[in-house]
Amino acid sequence: MNKSPEFDEAVSKLRSSMGLLSTEGDCREIVESKETVLSRFQPIFNRDHLSQLTEQEFSPLLYLEYNHHWSGLHRSLPKIRANMPLLREVLAELLDESKPIEERFNHAVETVPGMGKAIVTAILQIVFPDDYGVWNNTSEGGLRALKIWPIFDRGESMGGRYIKINDILKDLSRELEIDLWTLDSLWWAAKSQSEMVTRTEGSLRAPLSVSELYPTLGFGLERQLQDFMADNWDKIPLGQDWTIYAEQGDDDVGVEYPCDVGSIDILARHKNGKDWLVIELKRNQTNDDTVGQVLRYMGWVKAKKAEPEEMVKGLIIAREVNQNLMYALNAVKDVDLQLYEVEFRLRQAPKFGEQA
User: How far is CA 84 from the centre of its chain?
Assistant: First the structure.
């Protein structure tokens, strides 16, 4: 059991967010859907059934409307289901508890294209809900924010890293007296609480813009814009020159990329292989917060990810622009601004008997 001062403080902070598990709609739905999800998907991963697993049975697991928990997994589906015999073989080994988890984890992410840590650990969580926690960008971001992200040995494999991460997740689960499924939803509650505090503090420093006062205009929560961009990356102008950052087995790791100073909305790399792009979607925070945030992320990428000769650029995407933001961006280098638009139209429906 990890009993460091940092761990104790992390437990205290998480405990203060637990009330949102029953009051915040998305978190409550995750907790309450556990038995529904397990009863649907556990049977398809049964050892006696795995050799017959079909694409139609597996695919729904990667969609939020069916797993009620994890978004964005579906973006890896085309690669994963391209070779179903290989997927069945790898899943059989992944779920074989007679073998070391490090070995099974590494084999899964190295063998099946698109089979990243988020999908591997989601499957482990569903099949063995008492033994394996979920390692994805959200849980990693939470552990980093709470200062309890583990230290890895140089060159340590992903499976070896997961063992250390899972030990912390299980310690948190025991200390908070909640199961690992509920702990995974608690990261969303803690993040929501943190964002609410940030918005409240920001509103004391500067007047809110129209989009901040009425966030339901346009895309409303920029989460929808983020998902739209990630799902349609190859079809938007940014996709012509940039690719979403990927790591071994994780094609979409660059979406909500966790780092030591927060979570980058989208981290991309230029197709020339030399430049980095930090994309920040302006939410309900002040202009100063937005500019400071993107600069902080750019500084982290420059220090931790980029080679000395590589450029790190920033891009703020907002619904509207004001003079304060323009002045701020005029004084900083390598940060661009783009505005998004949403078109909403109503048209008269055809009369009965008329052609649509």
Answer: 26
Burial of 284 (0-12, 13-18, 19+ CB in 10 A): buried
Long-range contacts of 240-247 (CB under 8 A, 24+ apart): 241/270, 241/271, 242/268, 242/269, 242/270, 242/271, 242/277, 243/268, 243/269, 243/271, 244/268, 245/269, 245/276, 247/116
Contact 334, 313 (CB under 8 A): yes
Q: Phi and psi at residue 143, in whole multiples of 5°?
A: -65, -40
Mean pLDDT, residues 269-276: 90
**Cβ atoms of residues 159 and 117 within 8 Å:** no
Q: How many residues does the chain have?
A: 356
Residue 355: what residue type?
Q
| Model pLDDT for residues 57-109, shown as the tens digit of each residue | 999 999 999 999 898 899 899 999 999 999 999 999 999 999 999 999 999 99
Side chain identity at residue 25, one-letter code = G
Sign of CA dihedral 105, 108, 110, 115: negative
What digits encode the pLDDT tens for the residues 156-208? 999 999 999 999 999 999 999 999 999 998 887 776 555 544 444 443 333 33
Strand spans (E) along the chain: 242-244, 255-259, 262-270, 276-281, 312-318, 335-339
